[in-house]
Design brief:
Glutaredoxin; 6-stranded mixed beta sheet; globular
Amino acid sequence: MACTPDKPVFKAIDLTGADYALGFELPDQNGQKRTLADFKGKVVVVFFGYTQCPDFCPTTLSEWVQVKKALADKGDLLQAVFITLDPERDTPELLKAYMANFDPSFLALIPPVSDLPELAKSFKVYYKKIPLTGSADSYTMDHSAGTYVYDTSGRLRLYARYGLGPTAMAADIAQLLK
């Protein structure tokens, strides 16, 4: 019998080999164009959301902070990337402040409004602007709330559903860092 390494068992959904969510080329909150290749050697977690989100987004970003801490001396090998679904309101200045509230190393990417539908489709991300009553300019956003996880080579590996929790996420990321 040949010795083969055990295949890792993840808490998140294993997407190894998926043919979607393959990457991005978008400006960050500082105006620098970013791609997955920029983070070679790190595990990258990608979440789509918006700054005025009352629940999923701040909870997920807070969990990434906990995951980074749980990884201890390997925490710097985690790169959190937040892609806004509301580029009309989420300005670079607003996103700088928003990311700084969580971790200064976290990046926010800002797709052009015209490119957002195709980007969301390529990641299989649902989003929809929901007008609020009483004001033509007031709205909220319904959106998917999962996190894509890429290994240190930039390959899509996992999809973590909202609510998986920082302990499970840290365990999965630790496996990807081995």
